[in-house]
Amino acid sequence: MSAVKDRRGRVRAAGGLVLDRGAVLIVHRPRYDDWSFPKGKAESRWERDRATALREVLEETGLRCRIGRRLPDATYTDARGREKIVRYWSMHPQGGEFEPSDEVDEVRWLTVEEARRLLTYDHDRAVLDALEWSAGG
User: Fold this and answer.
1) How far is Cα 46 from Cα 39, in angstroms, rounded to an integer?
2) What is the pLDDT of residue 136?
3) Are β-strands 11-20 and 83-96 bridged in parallel, bridged antiparallel, or unpaired?
4) Do 16 and 101 touch, CB atoms closer than 8 A?
5) Which residues are CB-contacts of 74 (< 8 A; sequence separation ≥ 6)?
6) CATH value at residue 25
7) Is position 135 within any domain?
8) How many domains in the chain?
9) Which domain holds residue 105?
10) What is the pLDDT along the chain (137 residues), one digit of tens a residue?
């Protein structure tokens, strides 16, 4: 299956910053040996970005989430040399449980500062930095 692209030819993806009690969830992907936010590519040109984000967070973390506010996009060149845009939302878990898989083998709930240190990519840190923390997350 070829990647779904936006009007500018960028690979379309979406994900979430899952927040709970002042902590943010990050995932470890063994294929890349990196720490990032749960995200993934759109499955079809008809799949809306919000639906992609919720589906990918569920697939990677096992958590069913309530979607919150839109966060800044991240754009970068992916491992295959393609320009990629990831649209992010804040999310709050409503249930579910993580089970390790080939795609994501570990998740961690961290403070913002801990997450900033552990995240592999600067574009993820930029999304984290744009998140305004409040008492409700």
Assistant:
1) 18
2) 41
3) parallel
4) no
5) 85, 86, 88, 123, 124, 126, 127
6) 3.90.79.10
7) no
8) 1
9) 11-128
10) 689 999 999 999 999 999 999 999 999 999 999 999 999 999 999 999 999 999 999 999 999 999 999 999 999 999 899 999 999 999 999 999 999 999 999 999 999 999 999 999 999 999 999 886 533 44
Q: Which stretches of 21-96 are assigned E, i.e. beta strand?
A: 23-29, 34-36, 39-41, 63-70, 74-77, 83-96
Q: Name the residue with tokens 């409503």.
A: 94
Which amino acid, 11?
A: V
What's the confidence (pLDDT) of residue 21?
Answer: 94
Cα–Cα distance measured from residue 116 to residue 119, given in angstroms and rounded to the nearest whole number: 6
Token pair 């749960």: residue: 38
